[in-house]
Amino acid sequence: MKLRKESGLKKTGEQKEEKINWRRRGIAVFFILLFFIFTLTQLDLYKDEILPVDGDSMGEMAEELELYDGIKIEQEMQVKEAEDNYVDINIRNSALRANEGILVFTLYDDEGQLVYKNRLKARRLKAKQKFRLQILENLEPGETYRLILQTSNMSKQRALVLTTTKEQSSYMGSLIVNGEEQGQVRLQSRLVHPSWNIKKIAVIMLAFLFAFAAVFVPVNLPERLNKLFTRILFVITPVACFAIVEKTCKYRIFNMKQPALNLNLWIYAMILILVYLITNRARLAATITVCFSYGMALINYFVSYFRGTVFVPADITAAGTAANVIQSYSFQITTSVLWGGIALMLFLTCFYKIKAYQGMQVTGRLLTLGAYAITAVAFFNIFYQTNSLEEWKVHYKVWNPTISYEKNGFAVCFVVGSKYLIPETPKGYSAKEAQEEAQPYIDKAKNQQSTEGVKPNIIGIMNEAFSDLAVDGDLKVSEDYMPYIHSLTENTVKGNLHVTSFGGRTANTEYEFLTGMSMAFFSGGTVPYEHQMKHSMDSLTTQVRDLGYQGLIALHPYKSNGYNRENAYPALGFETYYSQDIFENPDRVRSYISDKADFEKITELYEEAKKESDAPFYMFNVTMQNHGGYGEDFSNLPLDITIEDKNKNESAERYLNLVKKSDEAFEELTEYYSNVDDPTIIVMFGDHQPNLSDEFFSSLIGSDTVNTLEGVAKEHTVPFVIWANYDIQEEEVEQMSVNYLSTKVAEVAGISLTPFQCFLQEMQEEIPVITGNYYIGKDGEIRELANTKGYEEWINTYHMFQYNQVYDYKNVLKNFFSVVSS
């Protein structure tokens, strides 16, 4: 009877276990099928195998041509296929050391118009290889084009070698070297086009077949082997996380130096052990860790795709704003994202085929916890307390974190970036010390208060992604994209404005404008509206409020909750905040409310206010028309302006046509106020340059400059214009950062300055530009923020005042950030 009972219990237990197994199989099959269906929707990813056009071949090598400084190679070729095509060229490095020069490939049509340009650093060619140019996209089949290859700054001792052939091709003409015909010789090259990559398709299908088979095929390993494989998979989980993340993000693991590689693995190991200590299950801990890692990689991929910069810790609180704007973008995944997902699927499939074991006993967990705590202390010291990372040459560039992520890996840079969320206390800071530093400016503000009594209307406009790309480099266009603003001289102050943001984080530019604070003293990726606006803060808005202005309106023709504006604007003194809901059937450009409709709303709000009171009017407007997403055509955006040089780029052309519409709308706005009796000042400025492709900016700025501080400064420069409908002193400002702009507006308007603005006036003379990426002293040199030599006192005093207003607000300086009474 007892045996029968035990047998029954055993059978019941086996049935229960089998039921659990089938449930697991069902869940696994569901997710594998879901991912399989997703991969089938990405057909373009499998079409990357290159095939010759109509069997055209490279031809047997005839002779070699040396490439060094001053060589110019020309060859005609004819496009035969309507689909996208490529050109293969045989080129190699013949020296032991790589050459340091540059190869410039250009393509001209039969009318001599440039249709393509590509720059290649010679050092990238380290061995014989087939170099591929993707140059025939959107070209006309049957038309003849001239391909030109020129060299620059290349040593003859380390010349590259280009091979030729005597075999003729129906696509390639004869070769010309430095103006001389080479007879029947042509480049050893061929036209090719993409086709289905059967190998890639086969590997993907095999991966899914393996996953499905692994779900249903039983694996009965001996207990000893099972435990061994379980431990091996658990130990290599950090390696799997690292490989999956770097592959998904398209970072090159094999180019990474050993210290950075080790640190990345350490981070993933720390996450894994922490999850294991919490769950006490090896398989569950590995699953959570690897899925979390892949999820972070996907977030980084999409943030980089939409904004053009990597995912940093401070972005976490901007998720709501990202959700608002992501609807307006179209996107596609890359092969790297697909392979990362397949690697994740295979790793988990292997893990779940092995029998799981009970976790550690209490003693083991306590010992592991103690060891983990000791390791965590060492981890904290290395990443947050010491200069070990710098000594190991693991650098984090706040002004360009993308480069750091590529060199050092996602995990290391994300962790390093988190330390910038902790505010740094200025050297020697105390509320008393700050008050002593502030007193001279309080006295100065009292002495220079305005006595004229003229208080003009002040309208501030931060125009979304409004910029003049000519500051980045020579840009030949079919017509001027901002002719009105370029023509303004009378009663106008205008110039170049340096901002911290690029391609996104709009709210940071408006924060610097309204408050006079600088992103230089916040961590990389911080958005003050979301992180620091926990209390009321003096601003340009509170300044004019204290001077008797009416209106105090904020207007943004989009969703109201972006960047926490619903809370930030009242904290800055605005009495009314209008969003897109105030507009009824507005004019739109693409899917956004146009600047024309937006500016008409400004006029409408002004007229309503003036009916109630004669007090001067103030409002601040953030536009939406030019927001990112320039990759597709819209019927309501005519493309009249085209780029007519090597920088030709369809997205950039769409963007420039948007800028032209902003220029036209601004002209209409100033025309209206030209006929208004009340003195009025309108200030308009851009928040950042547009998120266009890296290739476009590299071509426009120069590949050797784009990633330097000089290149970064160009990418962070936008125009500003202060226009008045009455006589003001005209001025052309060569360079200024946005934190000084509201002070400049107050100066032009002739209203009483705050003591803080008096300080900013003096500081601007010493440091005309200070942003979250760099600063420029009066000597004109662009410096990293860490290098304060010669400007330490000014920068530390500024930091002290900002720290007092933002973080030590319970001891905020009296009579410093607001207008003082005489």
Please explain how this structure is put together.
It contains 25 helices and 26 strands. Helix 5 packs across helix 6 and helix 11 (401-408) packs across helix 12 (410-418). The chain starts with a helix and ends in a 16-residue tail after the last helix. The model has no long low-confidence stretch (mean pLDDT 83).
- Indicate the overall shape: globular
Helix-and-strand structural type: alpha+beta
**Assembly context of the chains:** single chain
The neighbouring-strand order within the major sheet is: 17-16-20-14-21-22-15-23
Radius of gyration over alpha carbons?
31 Å
Distance between the termini: 103 Å
Largest sheet: 8 strands, mixed
Question: How many β-strand runs?
Answer: 26
List low-confidence stretches: none
Average pLDDT confidence is: 83
Strand content: 15-25%
Number of helices: 25
* Fraction in helix: 40-55%
Q: How would you briefly describe this protein structure?
A:
By secondary structure, this protein is α+β, with helices and mostly antiparallel strands.
Structural topology:
Layout: H1 2-40, E1 49-52, E2 61-67, E3 72-78, E4 86-93, E5 102-108, E6 114-121, E7 129-133, E8 144-152, E9 160-165, E10 172-177, E11 180-181, E12 186-187, E13 189-195, H2 198-216, H3 223-235, H4 237-249, H5 258-279, H6 282-307, H7 319-326, H8 335-352, H9 362-385, H10 388-391, H11 401-408, H12 410-418, H13 431-447, E14 457-463, H14 483-487, E15 492-498, H15 506-515, H16 528-531, H17 540-546, E16 550-555, H18 565-571, E17 576-578, E18 588-589, E19 592-593, H19 595-612, E20 617-622, H20 650-674, E21 680-686, H21 694-701, H22 709-715, E22 717-724, E23 731-737, H23 741-749, H24 755-766, E24 769-770, E25 775-776, E26 782-783, H25 792-806
Parallel strand pairs: 14-20, 14-21, 15-23, 16-17, 16-20
Antiparallel strand pairs: 1-13, 2-9, 3-8, 3-10, 4-7, 4-9, 4-13, 5-6, 5-8, 9-12, 10-11, 15-22, 18-19, 21-22, 24-25, 25-26
